[in-house]
Every structure is written in structure tokens, then in C-alpha cells.
Amino acid sequence: MESVSMPERKSVPYSAGIILAASLAASPALAEDWTSVTGQQSLTELVSGATATIDLREGVTATGRYLPDGTGTIEAWGETFDRTWRVEGADRVCYAADTETNCYTFEQNLDEPDHYRVHHVSTGETYYFTLEEGEERMASGPGSEEGGLASPSAAEIAKQLSNPNTSMGTMNLNLDYIRFDGDLPGAGSQSATRLLFQPSLPYPLNETTNVFMRPAIPLIIDQDVPAGVGQYHNKSYELGDIAFDLGLGKTLPGGLVMIGGVVGTLPTATDDALGLDQWLLGPEFAVALVRPWGVAGLLLTHQWDIAGEDAYDTSITGGQYFYTINLQDGWQINSNPTFSYNHEARNSDNKLSFPLGIGVSRTVILGGRPWKFGMQYWHYLESPDDFGPDYQVRFSIAPVVALPWYRLRNQFGSEEDSQ
User: Fold this and answer.
1) pLDDT in tens, 280-335
2) Which of 363, 370, 303, 375 is nearest to 334 (CA)?
3) Can you tell me the mean pLDDT for 264-291?
């Protein structure tokens, strides 16, 4: 295959639209109709000022913009992913994020000089795109695990999903198996299986600030509850008390994240043994450090009863410590155990529940949509002496979703750009 250096031309912004994306795709023209694009100047002119757009799914687009100074961004799923790019050697362009670097070689179609194809150096995947001056062309084709000129990789998405102030919306499903223990006779033989649905719904105010809402809807699949000394009742397929939080998150220089808001609980349990029959409300505060290696943070809440059953008082301090260590290819070591301190418990031995957690997760891209799969194990170092959790196993699934306000913003943004 012959090699050619592109002729000099005026430095104008180009728009690159990927019109087909497929692994090892067949070329629309014969092999001899393509020629390699080589040379520092030719590759720099090809990429500098380019915009690449791709349809990740129906109605969901991602856009990559590459500036002449070697920086760039990918906008996808409501989040912005930072990139850098550079020409390496005489025949490839490398795009780098905090988690990885991907390099590509370019070929030009001799019969249609505005048509190009790109080869991923490591995976061999092939993409096609067309250059058009002054016009952005919409594209079709799924995102890939390694990302592309316009789409973030699974590793980039995994990193953003670990940020407590991310703008990405997710539908989180957690399946928990809990084994109990305690001084009550038979406590060690009791267990619970619960499904928790907790969507994360952020609304961005600006590049560093989000308002977010997170309802937590528990479905009790099967749970044993004390009903007297040595006696337990089994509850199946019941709804528990729905919790929620409404917060404001701010990312500060250096990767420091601060979150403040309110947290509450609604008396929605369909069985009195599974809920408090009270309305709870209180403040929440979280702080986290987001770095290239991962995330570490702490969430604290406190709730008091404000209405409902008045035969007893409720005052609970709760929270969650969380950490993530980024690996490669979307893999992470992480956990986010929850703890609580019941100030109104009848004695000090029944106030605190505190687990030690470890887990692993992986983010993958299936059909253009990112999915995060995870498993955690929590071992309770402290638990109510009479009856409380001994250990907990959690399986989680979290698909990323395009929230309605992002769709509207993209639609209006496209209309403004076309005017």
C-alpha cells in the first residue's frame, strides 16, 4: 500500500463525521483505492480543529472536538470527557485520557478524497468518516469498549460513574443478600433478600455544579423479622419505606467534591414490621476526592421523625464511605458500605451498625449503552447485639441513560448551530 503526504492547505476547521463504525468492516472500495496518510504536518492538519459526531443509540449522540493546541473533549451521556491528542511518529495519531491511550492510523480514498478510514492500532477495528469544511455531519454506529474519535471508552465512563458529582444519569439496581446474627435465639439462621432500585438523576447547572435527586425504592423479596423470643415471621414481596435525597454538588479545583442537601424517608412499607410508619427528614453532607487513580469519600446524614407514628421517637445518623481504584478496561476495585447509629435504641449495644466492604466492578458498552456490573461483600464489624446483620452480599447493575433534559439540550443546541 503506497504512502502519501497530503498537500499543504489553509488551516480551516474541519468536521469529521463517522458514517460507519464496525469491527474489521469491509472496505467500500478496493484496497488499491486507499492510501496511507503520513507525515507530521499532514496528520496535524487532518485532526486539528476537527469535530467527530456519532450516534451511540437512537436519539443519543456523542461529539468529539479536537483543538489545535493538542487538547480535546468528548461530550456523551450528559458528561464531558477530557482528551489530549498528538501525532506519534510519521503514521499515527494518539488520543489520551487519564485511563488509557489509543492510537490510530489514517487512510484516504483516492477516488473520493474527502473519505477516510481509521484503523485502531491495538484492536484492528476500522472506522470510516467523511471530512466536510464548515459542516458537521451526523453519523451512525455504536460506541466501542476502547472508545473512538467521538465516543468515550468503557474505562473513561467507569471513571466518571465513580465521581459522586457526575452528570451521567443511571438506573441502579442492587440485589442484596443479608445474613443476620445476634443474641436472640435462632438469630443466626435468619436472612433477607432485597432489591433496591435507586436511579441517579443529576441536572447540571454549569460545568462544575449539579443538582441531583436519588429516590431509593426497596422491594423486600424475602425477609425474616423477629416476632418474639425465638420466633420469626417471614415476609415476602413487600414494599419497604422509600428513601430519597436531594442535593447540590460542586467540584472544586484539585478534584475536591462537596455535596450538601436533604435526605428523607417516606412511610410506604406495606407491612408494619418492615417500616417505621413515620416521615423522616434531615440534612446530608458529603466530601470526596477525585483523582486519576480513583475516588475516596464520605457521606453523612441525620434523620428525625417529623410526622407519623408518635408512640416512639426516631433519630438516626447514617452514612456511607466509598472508594474506587481504577484499573484497566473498565475494571475497578470499589465499595460503598452504609452504616447507621440509632440514637433512640433501647441500649448502647443496639445502636451501631458498621460494615467493612470490598468489591469489584466492570463497565462495558453493550449496543452503544454503558452498563456497570458489580459485586460487593460487606462484613459487619459492629451490629446490634440482639438482632442485626452479620454479612451482606450485593450484586449491582447500573445502565447509563440519556436523561430528558440532555436530549432537549442537544436538540436545541443542534438547532442553534444550524442557524
Assistant:
1) 999 999 999 999 999 999 999 999 999 999 999 999 999 999 999 999 889 999 99
2) 375
3) 97
Measured CA to CA, the distance from residue 66 to residue 342 in angstroms comes to 53
H or E segment to which residue 160 belongs: helix 154-161
Distance (Å, rounded) from C-alpha 348 to C-alpha 129?
67
What are the helix (H) ranges across 1-85? 40-47
Q: Read off the pLDDT of residues 324-365 as tens digits, 9 standing for 90 and up.
A: 999 988 999 999 999 999 999 988 899 999 999 999 999 999
- One-character DSSP codes across 4-35: EPPPP-----EEEEEEEEETTPPPSS-GGGEE
Residue found under cell 416521615: 279
pTM: 0.84
Half-sphere exposure of 235 (CA within 13 A, CB side): 19
The answer to whether the CB of 17 falls within 8 A of the CB of 92 is: no
The CA angle 55-101-72, to the nearest 5 degrees, is 55
- Phi and psi angles of residue 188, each rounded to the nearest 5 degrees, phi first: -70, -10
> With contact defined as beta carbons under 8 Å apart, do 362 and 201 qualify?
no
Which residues have C-beta within 8 Å of that of residue 10, sequence separation ≥ 6? none
Q: Which residue has the cell 488551516?
A: 11
Q: Which amino acid would we find at residue 391? A: Y
Extract the C-alpha cell encoding 145: 469498549
Task: Enter the DSSP assignment of 155.
Answer: H
Distance CA 227, CA 157 (A): 46
| CA-closest candidate to residue 303, choices 261, 263, 345 | 263
